[in-house]
Amino acid sequence: MKTIDRDGLKQKIYNHEPMKLIEVLPQESFEDFHLPGAINIPVGSEKFEERVQAAAEKDEQVIVYCMNEECDASPKAAKRMEALGFTNVLDYAAGKEDWRSADLPVE
After folding, report:
1. Which of 62, 63, 89, 104 is 20 to 30 A from 73 in CA distance terms?
2. Are 16 and 37 in contact (CB under 8 A)?
3. In this structure, what DSSP letter does residue 79 have?
């Protein structure tokens, strides 16, 4: 599984690069705050596979994230997506706490 760091993700967001940014935490966490442009598909959802396949093409760049390095939701999501045939999945392992700690914008 490939990963991306904060600077790499920030560059992609600021350059409006084509990608899907997916927070894989529960909806309550997403509603608290999330990265700009992110959508919410909780990895614990019964319909995770169905929803992620509806949200992104299998060859599209998809970046998943969760709370922080200790959170295992985004690595799980990335592995499940790769098993579905997604070919360009990146895990922002440091997650939304890292993003906010750098005073970057959140929604």
Report:
1. 104
2. no
3. H
- H helix count then E strand count, the chain: 5, 5
Domains, in order of start, for the chain: 2-101 (3.40.250.10)
Among 84, 85, 61, 58, which residue's Cα sits nearest to residue 4?
61
CA–CA distance, 37 with 3 (Å, rounded to integer): 19
How are beta strands 62-65 and 20-23 bridged, if at all? parallel
Q: Which residues contact 64 (CB under 8 A, 6 or more apart)?
A: 22, 23, 24, 74, 77, 78, 81, 89, 90, 91, 92
The pTM of this model reads 0.96
**What's the N-to-C CA distance of the chain in angstroms?**
27
Quote the tokens at residue 17: 């690069």
The per-residue pLDDT for range 50-105, each reduced to its tens digit, is 999 999 999 999 999 999 999 999 999 999 999 999 999 999 999 999 999 999 99
